[in-house]
Write a structure and sequence with these properties.
The protein is an all-alpha fold. Helices cover 77% and strands 0% of the residues. The longest helix is centred in the last third of the chain and has 33 residues. The protein starts with a helix and ends in a 19-residue tail after the last helix. The mean pLDDT is 89.
């Protein structure tokens, strides 16, 4: 693997990064578009906001959990490339069907299928990106790829602005559908590009080597690194058709159990923070009687937060993650997220729109850089034959946190008030800061090291 790890940055690295990054952007579009079109969706189906939130996010996070773990296992079993295509096809088709659903119940069913596909994307892309990249650039490449999530969130805000504004009449009069349905269809159409582009990505050479397919691995390494070598590459091989039970058993075995506990705990917290912040803003702060704003203008606030907070924060993280290391970035991100979220609660309570926008931007910067840093760290701490399953297990635990992040505001705001609900949410996701501090003290620093060097030895973390 030395050819991959010491190679200069080449055009094929950029191509792989961009293609996988577009996949993340499309995933983000599906995740965030609902918050942008929540008000007209609720009105169209004739349901209340609480029912819409609980119904949508329950099926969404359940689907993500199933998709991440199931497709993560399949990515370790069948390879990364096959899953790149399968997951995108599933969620594209399901999105079209969700956009044309005649009732809220049918909508939820197809959102569930969409989520399974998106969950599979999480595992396949996260596990694969670092397997192609030179060691000294791996952290930055992973962060930039993950930060396409923010690009997708910005895209969702822009689509919502046009679908609910200038294009609303076109969707209603020419297509006979509501603007929010048109917004979902735009996302599905964009996925066709991603499906076409993924044909150019080779199979992961590390996965090929882990399966004993040395000739194929050597060919891909030569293509990616630009350096050829006589003879076959060597590396450890494992059973090519391991069961999910065998994979999970190894993830919780003594050499890996502390890493797995860390991964699940910290993604639980990071997801809770991200979804808690976005749900609190759109469903309980930018509403009548709190910080009043017309529904058509809500995407402007989410757009501001995603551009100045999430997108900018992700690229700042890309600049420092290989220079200062993963561990310090992880701690800093959770601190910023906590400070910004408390500020959001205070600004909302005060009824100030400018302070709400500012606090939301800071909170989203912290929450986004936190989960990106988490994915970067966890994608590096498992051996190749377990990487996608391990990421899938982490994502599954994170979706539980995300569901709590959505439900906690919905259940607590009415009984405890806005500020108390925000503080209670912060108290829960502060567990991520505790986990980050533990990793800072006990975990390996991955910056500049090969993936093989990071494999656990004995019982050490």
């Amino acid at each position: 693997m030395d050819r991959l790890d010491t190679a200069p940055w080449r055009g094929i690295h950029t191509r792989i990064l961009l293609v996988l990054g577009v996949g993340w952007a499309l995933d983000a579009f599906e995740v965030t578009i609902i918050n942008n079109v929540l008000t007209p969706l609720v009105a169209d189906f004739g349901i209340d906001t609480t029912r819409a939130l609980i119904g949508n996010w329950t099926v969404w996070f359940t689907g993500l959990l199933i998709g991440a773990l199931g497709f993560g296992w399949l990515a370790d079993r069948l390879g990364r490339k096959r899953l790149f295509v399968a997951t995108l096809v599933l969620y594209s088709v399901a999105t079209v069907l969700a956009a044309t659903a005649p009732s809220f119940e049918v909508f939820l069913f197809f959102r569930f299928l969409t989520a399974i596909g998106v969950g599979g994307e999480y595992s396949a892309i996260t596990s694969a990106i670092g397997e192609y990249m030179p060691a000294r650039h791996r952290g930055r490449a992973t962060v930039v790829t993950m930060n396409f999530f923010s690009v997708g969130a910005v895209f969702a805000s822009l689509v919502a602005l046009f679908a609910l504004g200038p294009l609303s009449a076109f969707f209603t009069e020419q297509l006979g559908i509501a603007g929010w349905r048109g917004a979902l269809l735009i996302g599905a159409a964009a996925a066709l590009y991603g499906l076409w582009a993924r044909r150019a990505i080779p199979e992961s050479p590390r996965w090929l080597l882990s399966q004993g397919r040395t000739r194929e691995a050597d060919a891909v390494i030569t293509t990616v690194s630009g350096v050829s070598r006589d003879g076959r590459v060597q590396g450890p091989a494992v059973a090519a058709r391991r069961s999910l039970r065998a994979q999970l058993a190894e993830l919780v075995s003594p050499p890996l159990r502390r890493r797995t506990a860390f991964a699940c705990t910290i993604d639980f917290a990071a997801s809770l923070a991200y979804y808690g912040v976005t749900t609190m803003l759109t469903a309980f702060i930018l509403v009548a009687g709190v910080v009043e704003l017309p529904a058509a203008q809500v995407p402007y606030v989410t757009l501001t937060g995603n551009v100045l907070g999430a997108l900018l924060g992700g690229y700042l993280l890309a600049l420092v993650v290989d220079r200062y290391g993963r561990k310090v970035c992880l701690v800093a991100a959770f601190v910023i997220s906590i400070v910004g979220t408390v500020g959001l609660g205070l600004a909302g309570t005060a009824g100030s729109l400018p302070l709400t926008v500012l606090a939301f931007t800071v909170a989203l910067l912290g929450a986004t850089t936190a989960w990106i840093a988490v994915y970067t760290v966890v994608s590096e701490i498992y051996p190749t034959h377990l990487r996608a399953t391990g990421v899938g297990l982490m994502v599954g635990a994170g979706r539980i946190g995300g569901l709590i992040g959505v439900l906690a505001p919905a259940l607590l705001v009415g009984s405890l008030g806005l500020l108390t609900a925000v503080l209670a949410t912060v108290a829960i996701f502060s567990s991520g800061l505790v986990a980050a501090l533990w990793w800072y003290r006990n975990g390996p620093e991955a910056a500049g090291r090969t993936l093989e060097e990071l494999a656990p030895v004995g019982g050490r973390v």
